[in-house]
TrEMBL record:
UniProt organism field: Alsobacter soli
Record GO biological process: purine nucleobase catabolic process; pyrimidine nucleotide biosynthetic process
GO molecular function: allantoinase activity; dihydroorotase activity; metal ion binding
Name this protein carries in UniProt: Dihydroorotase
Enzyme class: hydrolase
């Protein structure tokens, strides 16, 4: 499905929120040829001939969200998710750009697969679906993939997705090689040998539940190693998801040394903790695992301070066969594209985070890291926008979600924040109701 705008678009009576400055301004917005022509009080009532007019009714208008970490089944596991179904879920959640992880079958370790995904998304998706490519061949972590060719084919960064590269020499070579053409390495910081049989955060709760715990050190040791290699090579590095206070100290030290390092956090780590697992709720078995409440609060504070750069959905659809089993045996992962914004608004309503800060971490900062023109509310920027009511309450019914899989950690949760319109390239791709 093409997302190109065929006619001008006017968003009338909106409250425009700039995530960069935090400035709010009422008025209208005019988009033509896929870009923002003007917005604010000055253009109120200015409507080009033949324009489609959307009445925002005083709702927030902001840049569309950019999700840097989503697992999509296509190719190879279309029963879990396709590019088409993931894009519909994204649009319903206000996500206008999705970066798809290379954990597919075959994996995205060949330029031909990158090209296939780009063409397939162009033909079937309603939002922008961008491929990430494998850092190592077959995602095995032993031999570097042809990362320059993959980047030239259209991959936005290099990663082994949910797998960690445990071979330090391979990681060093990848950082060095990618540095020479400005490539970005994104890494899942988790030592699988130290995790071992761990299925949740190591601590008192894991002991009481009779489950093997995964220590925080599985994350921090891998992160510390990676940043020492960044110091050695001068490469660009992004920690895909960090989840504990100790990791924040490591990131802060690297930043103070001037290293080109950024990091993300899962919406789950920001809004949930290990206690939410409750009676062995398998939809909350994640990697990294949900941590202690102290770690969650530390992540929220670091996001507010700008130490954590981006929020990701970590969208990972799993079917019934892999989730409706005992907790220790089930697959990691939860879906999140459609609920990322509403879950994040919990922090805003609780007074833990400013709305502009939340939106900046979900739009502007990912765009800056990836070198994309989206994620900005300004004249001449791509007209990728969302219109949402931050106060509108709802109870999440998994049956209403657009993803093929329904493994949401927010099953039955009371949330606030409904996306009423999603616009990509100046065209409305989702409208609620």
């Amino acid at each position: 499905m093409s997302v190109s705008a065929l006619q001008p678009l006017v968003l009338a009576n909106g409250v425009f929120l700039d995530p960069v400055t935090g400035r709010e301004e009422g008025g209208d917005l005019v988009a033509e040829a896929g870009v923002i022509r003007d917005f604010g009080h000055a253009v109120r009532g200015s409507r080009p001939d033949g324009a489609t007019v959307v009445d925002c009714r005083g709702m927030v208008v902001a840049p569309g969200l950019i999700d840097m970490r989503a697992f999509v089944g296509e190719p190879g596991a279309e029963h879990r998710e396709t590019l088409a179904s993931a894009s519909r879920a994204a649009a319903a959640g206000g996500v206008t750009t999705v970066v798809c992880m290379p954990d597919t079958n075959p994996p995205v370790d060949d330029p031909a697969v990158v090209d296939f995904l780009i063409r397939r998304a162009r033909d079937t998706a309603v939002v922008r679906m961008l491929p990430a490519a494998a850092l190592t061949k077959g995602l095995h972590g032993t031999e570097m993939a042809e990362i320059r060719l993959l980047t030239e084919a259209g991959a936005v960064f290099l990663t082994d997705g949910a797998r960690s590269v445990t071979n330090a020499q391979v990681m060093r070579r990848a950082l060095t090689y990618a540095r020479d053409f400005g490539g970005l390495i994104v890494h899942h910081c988790e030592d699988p040998y130290l995790v071992g049989d761990g299925v949740m955060n190591e601590g008192e709760l894991a002991s009481r539940l009779g489950l093997h715990g995964a220590p925080r050190e599985a994350e921090t040791i891998m992160l510390e190693r990676d940043l020492r290699l960044v110091r050695l090579t001068g490469g660009r590095y992004h920690a895909a998801m960090i989840s504990c206070a100790d990791s924040l100290a490591i990131i802060e030290r690297a930043r103070s040394e001037g290293l080109d390092v950024t990091c993300g956090v899962s919406i789950n780590s920001l809004t949930l903790n290990e206690n939410d697992i409750g009676p062995y709720r398998t939809f909350l078995k994640l990697s990294p695992p949900l941590r202690h409440e102290d770690d969650r609060l530390a992540m929220v504070e670091a996001l507010a301070d700008g130490l954590v750069d981006v929020i990701v959905s970590d969208h990972n659809p799993q079917d019934v066969e892999t989730k409706r089993v005992p907790f220790a045996e089930c697959a990691d992962g939860a879906i999140g594209l459609e609920t990322m914004l509403a879950a994040g608004l919990r922090l805003v309503h609780a007074g833990e985070l400013e709305l502009a800060t939340l939106l900046r971490a979900m739009s502007t900062r990912p765009a800056e890291i990836l070198g994309l023109p989206q994620g900005r509310l300004r004249k001449g920027a791509p007209a990728d926008l969302i219109v949402f009511d931050a106060e509108e309450p709802f109870v999440l019914d998994p049956a209403t979600l657009h993803s093929k899989s329904k493994n949401t950690p927010f099953d039955g949760a009371r949330l606030q924040g409904v996306v009423h319109h999603t616009i990509v390239d100046g065209a409305v791709v989702h409208s609620a109701g």
